[in-house]
Amino acid sequence: MNQSINPHDLGAHAVADDLFTPVDPAAFNAVSPPIFQTSLFTYDSYEAMEDVFAGRTRNYIYSRGDNPTVREFELLVARLEGAEDGRAFSSGTAAITSTILSLVEAGDRVVAVRHLYNDVYRLLVKLLARLGVAVDFVDPADHDEVRKALSGAKLLYLENPTSFVFELQDIAALSAMAKEAGVTTIIDNSWATPLFQKPIQHGVDIVIHAASKYLGGHSDTVAGVVVGSKEAIARINATSYPYVGAKLSPFEAWLLLRGMRTLRVRLKEHERSGLLLAGRLKEHSAIGRVRHPAFQEHPGRATLTGYAGLFAFDLNPDIDVARFVNSLRDIRLGVSWGGPETLVVPAKVALQIPDRMTSFIRFGVSEQTVRFAVGLEEPELLWSDLQQALHAAKR
Ligand SMILES: *Cc1c(COP(=O)(O)O)cnc(C)c1O
To answer: Which positions bear N6-(pyridoxal phosphate)lysine (predicted)?
Structure first.
């Protein structure tokens, strides 16, 4: 009963038995955690299995539920955010969808900041609308408008700052308003990470990360995680997580644990390079507005203890967007962010203006807006590249 591999199944009769004794995961004082790349866990007896299923003893059952490597990642993010528990998913979007589905039912209404992450916008206006859940998009700076919208709502959804426009929100004031109205507050904290913003300390109930971005940090994994009270996570576990089935793989959880060991030093570098380049772009004659939270006088800045490397800038009308990005040599075109590589995304391409996201234009994004994810390269190299491409793209 104590063998993890039965040698007879392999036709290997003459192999020493001790080779097949399961390895104690705590053995060897390994500095890197083991990967429990297993789909299921076994029991020594009927009684032992029954005890686990009845909840009398805690043990793992099946990796669509819990897995030790994934659990380590979930609890690490929970600790960093000051939350009681966490649940990981195969993508940030799966974490967001499963969290919202655990809280709403037909007839409910969600209040969301007006230009949140694109696929969450679509989730709310397409899938949730079909399920009978309404949504109100609000200007988060207009607290009267938010207060009105919160009355009778179920959820308040924040993203401080939003990821294309970088609009800030006073998350302490907004979550206090929500609490007063009996509304649960969720925030997407992917931009700041728990190192630069700890929303639970400011009254937010549930924190979600696209771990694909800074937590993983190496552009090699798509993953998500949600943290909050034991009760909030238990609700997700009971109502959506096992049935959505979007579990994180043990190997990817291990990649995230590996990436997070350098989160602090990576973010410091993203912040330093980001501020340096944002400051220089702001002074450049080819650039209009630079959308970086550091340049906004707003109470939403108070909860940020640092600045991530993702921001946006508007090219002046005499700069051709396509020619600008085509002239970049070291900086590449690509979606996502949070990895070592510096990437640009023209708003015109990513948002398919004006077909899909006319709302973004109303909120100040133009066809000249370019999102800029500063990576970990030497910032002077990036600055030279930007300068030569801006010069080459002049009409
Ligand atoms: C990328 C992203 C998501 C979605 O995460 P996925 O892992 O791609 O599903 C959610 N929110 C923000 C702000 C993001 O940038």
So the answer is: 213
